[in-house]
Structures are given as C-alpha cells and as structure tokens.
C-alpha cells in the first residue's frame, strides 16, 4: 500500500480510538485489503473489531446474514447487497461502524449493466441509516480497482466520524 494511505489509516484509527469507537469490515472484491491496511498499524486492535472476507455469495449469506433472496434478486454486486453486508458486519460484531464492499475488479466478470470497475459500498452505523456509495472506476486493472475501493472505504469510515 502507498505510504500516504497508511498515514491516512493511522489518523483514522487514532480518531476512532479517541471516540472509543470500533469498526468492522465486510469485504468481497477487496479480499480483506481494508482490514489488512488498518491492522498494519500498531495499536489497531483498540479500534478494529473484526473483518469478514465474504468473497462468495455463500459467505455473504452464512457469515454476515445477507438474505439469499436479496442476492438472487439483485446480484452480489448491488446497492442492496452492499448495504446488507455493512449491516451484517455490524450485527455480527461488536463494532459501532462497518463498511461493506462488493464489486467487479476484473479482468473478467463484467456485463453491460455491471461493468468491470463497478463497486458498491455500504456504511452502517449504530443508530443511523445505512449509506450507499457507488463507484464506477472503469477497467483500470484489477489492482487499481481494488486499491481505489480501499481509498473509498477509508473515506466512508472518515465520513462516519463527521456525520
């Protein structure tokens, strides 16, 4: 990861620790990169409660309780599933804030309506409505899509502190 992102993650963890808040992640296309970045920082255990890598549909359903009918109706890469992932991570952890990430990093798997580079995010917070963010990064290459998604996940965690 780039050093600027690591500094940003360190600042984020410090801000959460000062507010005594814990976070969780539910990651699909990023495969745990957000949790890995955060836990690379010494002292992260004061803030990072847990991370779920829910790469398959079954993992989304079994580990964090995403309704199977939601996946069937909208597909794994969708607003409803991203929000359900964040809510599921919150419900299945002791965190105060959770981010869910699902998308198509490529190079294959895209369609006309769900192209490579499409990523949906959910931000769930105790006592607040769940927020959705959609990004269409384009076909930048798998690594670039995943790293862009990590940056947006950090931005959502930052947003949760200011809302």
TrEMBL record:
<dbReference type="Pfam" id="PF02464">
    <property type="entry name" value="CinA"/>
</dbReference>
<dbReference type="InterPro" id="IPR008136">
    <property type="entry name" value="CinA_C"/>
</dbReference>
<dbReference type="InterPro" id="IPR036653">
    <property type="entry name" value="CinA-like_C"/>
</dbReference>
<protein>
    <submittedName>
        <fullName>Damage-inducible protein CinA</fullName>
    </submittedName>
</protein>
<feature type="domain" description="CinA C-terminal">
    <location>
        <begin position="8"/>
        <end position="160"/>
    </location>
</feature>
